[in-house]
Amino acid sequence: MSSNVVPLTSITRSRPVSEVAPAVGGGCSSSSCGSSDAQGDMPAHIWEKVKDHPCYSEQAHHYFARMHVAVAPACNIQCNYCNRKYDCANESRPGVTSEKLTPEQAARKVVAVANKVPQLSVLGIAGPGDSMFDWRHTSATFREVSKVLPDLKFCVSTNGLALPDHVDELAEHNIDHVTITINMVDPEIGALIYPWIYFKGKRYTGVEGARILHERQMEGLERLTEKGILTKINSVMIPGINDQHLLEVNAAIKARGAFLHNVMPLISDAAHGTAFGLSGQRGPKPAELKDIQDKLAGGANLMRHCRQCRADAVGMLGEDLSQDFTLDKIPEMPSYDPEPRRLYREVVERERADHNKAVAVAEAELAETVEEAPRKLVAICTKGGGRINQHFGHAQEFQIFEVDAKGVRFSGHRKADNYCVGGYGDDDKLDVVLAALEGIDTVFVAKIGRCPKDDLKKAGIEAVDLYPFEYIETAVAAWYAERFGTRTESASIA
Amino acid sequence: MALKIIADECTSCGACEFECPNAAISSKGGTYVIKASACTECDGDATKCQAVCPVEGCIVQG
Ligand code: SF4
Ligand code: SF4
Q1: pTM (2 decimals)?
Q2: In terms of pLDDT, which residue wins out, A154 or A96?
Q3: B-chain residues within 8 Å CB-CB of A74?
Q4: CATH number of A357-484
């Protein structure tokens, strides 16, 4: 049984390890472990904390929504991938400016969103500056919101420089998730990424600044681990600067107790005015990103479903409703109605159980029909819920799954929207899609027009539209079994 | 003896306001300004507002 099909029952009651443990070899080691999937090899107390968190649990991201509020504009470091005239390019997309809010305005917005988006489970503060450096605003926001929505989970993202100063307060605020962006553990490399930092009233540059940052990051991580606060590490992959070095980063953070490592591609474009954008530093190709992610898969649990949300993003991952919730569209002080969120949770519990059953059936089918067959990567058009439910023409990104005789596993996301790949016009949409699908020759869609289908075919990519609204695993397993199955039902030996 | 903020360059991040030891910086209608009578240029130390400001050339000699 591979790690993404641990049934929900295994979360609520204990089962023999042999049943829960992911298959070794082709299953776990080369694919997504831990929270890239369901519980996987994650300890029960951690899974309990992350299972409804869309940014930490690959399964939850199909069902739950997060929102970020941009209440912390001040920052204490300068990154070469960031232009401070816009948002932080790491925690939000570069070249975009979020709606900056006061803590009171943020609370208003959260209530308005909670009333309209019952999927909401997490409120994050990720900037646009640094949540820990701008701690006054961050903590005031948590205070305001928890008065109205005590069951909402909070999380913060930080560059780590000011983190050690606030670990105790984080514990008091009941914040049980922190994300630290760590791009290096070697100050020489750090100097290529961070031109300066501001620490205790002074600006430090070069290796000296990077060393202080590194030491503070490690100290902060260690102290969070001591306090039992879950820590995810984000790393921006910068080809030629820290790509291979991320293996060392992974080992260092794992040794200090980080529970998840998320490697994100550098987004670089001269139009964003960042130092890297202007110097022509390129971002990684999807295949290069996957290569590093695969190399890291044996270390700290790896996260593959991150979408690099904006600092004021609202909605399911991969979706952004923030334009529907700008301040002018929100009533003065909306009153909170807890009922929609409660009902939604009930539905999700049922749907998750159903989905897990479908995955188990799909695995059984593969086990029965496929003997030895090549591992394949396939792309899926989905709006969430773990189903093939998106029209090809609407896809802004693809979910990539890996399939072999052992099962169907989530592998990552590939963006195919104009913005993220550098702002091409509509005419080039197909080129953008083809670049995103590098190395993949099959894409599952709910529906696709005749022309794009033919265009894809010319490029050697088959669009499969035979399984609209099916669970992804069910459809991919059926397709794979049909194509690579060697045993027929009657000939199969149990 | 005082520094000033070039309004066009300021991102209104507020970082300098935190850091000024003399509370000389405040927000006025969306951007930040330095009250010249309160700014001591950090008494000869490295000026904190300039050290933290993310935009080069945003805070200059008044
Ligand atoms: S120079 Fe020093 S005293 Fe003057 S505004 Fe900047 S931080 Fe404040
Ligand atoms: S630090 Fe610079 S950009 Fe930020 S508010 Fe002060 S002057 Fe403006």
Answers
A1: 0.67
A2: A154
A3: 13-15, 18, 52
A4: 3.30.420.130
